[in-house]
Amino acid sequence: MSQLLSTSIEYLKGVGPKRAEILASELGIRTYRGLLHHFPFRYEDRTKFYKISEVNGDLPYVQLVGELIHVQEIGEKFKKRLVAKLKDDTGTIELVWFKGVTYFKKVLKVGEKYVVFAKPNIFNSKINLVHPEVETLIEHKNSVQSKLQAVYHSSEKLTKFALGSKNISRLMKTLLPQLKYKLDENLPLRIITEHQLLDRETALFNIHFPVSIELLKKSIARIKFEELFMIQLELLKLKLVNLEKSNGFVFGDIGEKFNGFYANNLPFELTGAQKRVLKEIRIDLKRGKQMNRLLQGDVGSGKTIVALMTILMGLDNGFQAALMAPTEILATQHYEGLKELLKGMDVSIELLTGSVRAKKRREIHAALESGTLDILIGTHALIEDKVIFKNIGIAIIDEQHRFGVAQRAKLYKKNTIPPHVLIMTATPIPRTLAMTLYGDLDVSVIDELPPGRKEIQTLHWYENKRLRLFGFMEQEIAKGRQIYVVYPLIEESEKLDYATLEEGYQHIFKRFPAPKYKVSIVHGKMKAHVKQFEMDRFVNGETDIMVSTTVIEVGVNVPNASVMIIESAERFGLSQLHQLRGRVGRGAEQSYCILMTGNKLSSDGRLRMKTMTATNDGFQIAEVDLKLRGPGDLRGTQQSGTPINLKLANLATDGELIQKARKAAFSILDSDPNLERMEHQNLRQYLGEKNRGKTNWSSIS
Ligand code: ADP
Ligand code: MG
Is residue 539 in contact with ligand 1, taking CB distance under 6 Å? Predict the structure, then answer.
C-alpha cells in the first residue's frame, strides 16, 4: 500500500510535471499521500437553500432553487453577455454570464426548474449572480455529489495554474477511487471499538467528500484522534526509552535532615497539594531512574518548600543539591529564604551569582568540590563548566521557561549519573497542553493555595480614573502598604517604552514628593548593583512605591506590598498580567491589582481585562490565554522531543480528545511497549513510514 501512496503526484491524471512542481512549492504536496492528507479548511453547505428575498451582498455564497423565466443575450461581439432571470415565490434575481455565452444560451431552458449556486454580487446597487453553477432540479436530485462542498486553501499562483479549490477537488475525485479498499487502518481494532471511531478509509474519504454533516463530524473526530494518538504514542515511547536508558541515584532513606526539618523548622502545615506532590517526588527518587518532573503551581502556591524538602531528601542520602533561578534577584531571595528556613540545622548553603567576588567564588568552588557545601543556589552561573560538585544528586530549576533544553542537558553532566531534576514553573499550562508540550516529562500540579489568603481584588480602570488612582495609592501608603507600578517593556520598541517609564516615574515623583514619600525605580538598563540596591530598598520597606518594568515579574516576594498597578495593561499578555498580579496578595492584608488601560481596546484586549477581573485562577487564565493566542505561540517553548505536526487537531481546543488519545496510547504501550503484537503491526508500520525510523520501536529490550 505504501508504494501506491508514495507515487509521485506528477503521475496523477490531470497533474503532470508543471503542476506537480506548483503543488510541491505552494502546498508541499509531492505524492498521492500528500494530496490525500491535504485537508479542506471549510465546507460550503449545499444542503441549505436560500429564498431569493433573503439574498444579500454579505453572504459568502447562496444556493437557490427556482424557475427560469427569461434568457437573453445582450451586447455585441466582445461585450456579449447572457442574462437570465430566476424566480421563486419570494422574488426574482438576475444570473449573468460573460463567458460561455453560446453554450449556456443553448442549454438553459425557460420554464425549467434549476438549482443555482454562487456568491452574491452587487452591480448598480442591484444583486445578481455572476457565473453561477447551475443544474436542473432533476439533475440536482439525482446527483450523488456531496451536498457539502470541500473548500481548499488557494493562492494566486495556484489559481493561475488551474489548481484552485475546485481543481483540487477534481484531483481528489480522480485519486480517491484508486485508493478505495487500499487505505490500511493504522489504529488497533480495540481502540477503534472503544472510542467508537470511524474506520480510516471512510474518514479520509468523507473529509474530502462528506456524505452528510454527521459523517463529516465523525470523520474529523477520527482524524484528530489519530493525529493526537500518534503524537502521544511517540512521546510516551520516548519517555519509556529515557526511563529505561537512564540510571538515577536512589534516595532510599528519609533521614535526619528531612525529619528534623519537618519536626522543628517547618513554619506551617503543608497543604494537601504540597503533600501529594512530595509523595509523587518521593516515589520518583526511590526507583533508581532519573527524575524529570515538572512542578506547576500558581504564584504563591508554595513551590519553594516542596523544593527544599526535595533537596533535604537528597542531603539525607549523602548528595549535594543545586537550585537555579533565572535572575540574580530571584536567586538571592531564594538563598535568604532557604537560609531562614534552615536556621539551626546542620546544613551549609551558599549563593553563587555573577556578582559574587572572586575570593568568595573560589571558596565556594572549593567547598563544592570537597563536599563540605550541601546546597548551592544561583543563576545559570552554576552550570558553568568550572563549577564542579563532589556529588550532586538533585537539581531544582525555578521558572523553567527561561531555561533552554540545552542548559538542562548541561546540568545532567554534573555527576557520573545525571542528578534528579525538578523543574518548577509558575506559568500554568493547561494540563492537556502540558501533556503534549512536556509529554516526555512527568507533571505534578499544586492546585491549592495555602489557607488564609485573601482573594486579590482586581479592577480595570480607564485613564479618566487617574486622579482616583492617585488618591487610592495615597490611602494605601497611609496604611503602611507598599505599591508596585509596572510599565510594559517590549524589546522592539524599548526606547519608546523607556520614555513612558521615565515619564510615569516623573509623574509619580511629583505627586508623591520626597521626603514624605519614597519611590524606587528599577529597569532593565540599570547596572546590576544599582538595580539590586533599589530593589533592596523596596524589599526592606524603605520605599513606598516601586516603579519598574517587568523585571519584577518573576518570583520577587514582598509581603507588605499589597497594590499592583499595571500601566498600559492592554499591552501585556494574560499570563504576564497574572504573573504580575501574583506579586501582591502575599501578606495578611487585602491586596489589589489595578489594570490601567487606554479607552480604545481591541476585543482581545477587552477579553483579557475581563478575564483578569473575573478570576484569580491561573489555570483558567491559561485556558483563555491559549484560546486567544493559539497553541502556535507555544511551540517555541516546547520541551518535548517529538515534532508536533497537526493538521486538524488543535491543542487549544481539543483538550478532551488529547486526554483520551493519551490514555489510549498509554494502554497500548503498557501492554506492548515495543509494539510486537500482531494486532499492533499496522501501527508500528505506520509510525515507521511516518518517521522513517526516527523512533526506534525496538530500543527497549
Ligand atoms: P511560589 O509557588 O510562588 O514559589 P512560595 O513558595 O514563594 O510560592 O510561597 C509563597 C508564600 O506562601 C511564602 O511566603 C510561603 O512561606 C507561604 N507558604 C507556602 N506553603 C504554605 C503553607 N502550606 N501554609 C502557609 N503558608 C505557606
Ligand atoms: Mg517561587
Answer: no
Residue minimizing CA distance to atom 25 of ligand 1:
450
pLDDT average, residue stretch 231-249: 82
Q: Which atom of ligand 1 is nearest to the CA of 306?
A: 6
Options 3.40.630, 1.10.238, 1.10.150, 2.40.128; CATH of 1-46+150-182: 1.10.150
CATH superfamily of this structure's domain 256-287+300-425: P-loop containing nucleotide triphosphate hydrolases (3.40.50.300)
Location of each CATH 1.10.150 domain in the chain:
1-46+150-182
Ligand 1: residue whose CA is nearest its atom 17:
302
The string of pLDDT tens digits covering residues 573-620 is 888 899 889 889 888 889 999 999 988 889 899 999 999 999 988 888
Q: Whose CA is nearest to atom 26 of ligand 1?
A: 450
Rounded CA separation 434/442 (Å):
10
**Ligand 1 pocket check for 238: Cβ under 6 Å:** no
Which CATH entry fits the domain spanning 457-615: 1.20.1050.40, 2.170.120.20, 3.40.1080.10, 3.40.50.300? 3.40.50.300
Give the residue range(s) of CATH 2.40.50.140 domains in the chain.
Answer: 47-145
**Closest residue CA from atom 4 of ligand 1:** 303
Distance between Cα 399 and ligand 2 center (Å): 8
Q: Cα torsion for 336, 342, 346, 351, to the nearest 10°? A: -20
Question: Over the stretch 173-223, which tens digit does the pLDDT of each residue have?
Answer: 999 999 998 888 999 999 999 999 999 999 999 999 998 889 999 999 999
Task: List every span in the chain annotated with CATH 3.40.50.300.
Answer: 256-287+300-425, 457-615
Nearest to 234 by CA among 701, 697, 700: 697
Q: Average pLDDT, stretch 336-358?
A: 94
What gap in Å lies between CA 340 and CA 512, rounded to an integer? Answer: 34
If you measure from the C-alpha of residue 305 to the centroid of ligand 1, how many angstroms do you get, rounded to a whole number?
7
Q: Which of 303, 304, 422, 562 to mutate to test the pocket of ligand 1 (most atoms within 8 A of CB)?
A: 304
Q: Ligand 1: which residue has its CA nearest to atom 5?
A: 302
572 with 510: CB under 8 angstroms? no
Residue type, 613: T
The pLDDT value recorded for residue 628 is 78
In the chain, % of residues over pLDDT 70? 91
Quick check: 634 pLDDT over 50? no
Ligand nearest to the CA of 295: 1
- For 491-542, the pLDDT digits (tens) are 555 565 666 778 888 889 999 998 999 999 888 778 878 888 888 899 899 9
How would you list the strands of the sheet with 442-446, edge to edge? 349-352, 375-378, 320-324, 392-398, 420-425, 292-297, 442-446
The predicted structure's pLDDT at residue 259: 96
Please report the pLDDT score of residue 700 as a whole number: 38
- Extended beta strands in 572-695, E state: 592-597
Helices 213-245 & 655-671 angle (0-180, nearest 10): 50
Q: Whose Cα sits closest to atom 20 in ligand 1?
A: 302
Residue 133 pLDDT greater than 70, yes or no: yes
Q: Is the CB of 297 under 6 A from ligand 1?
A: yes
**CB of 585 shorter than 6 A to ligand 1:** no
Phi and psi at 463, nearest 5°, equal -50, -30
Three-state DSSP at 238 gives helix
Cβ–ligand 1 contact at 428 (below 6 Å):
no
Tell me the whole-structure pTM to 2 decimals.
Answer: 0.67
Nearest-angstrom CA–CA distance, 522 and 540: 15
Question: What does DSSP assign to residue 31?
Answer: B
Domain 47-145 in CATH 3.65.10.10? The answer is: no
> 548 in ligand 1 pocket by Cβ < 6 Å?
no
In this prediction, residues 343-351 reach a mean pLDDT of 96
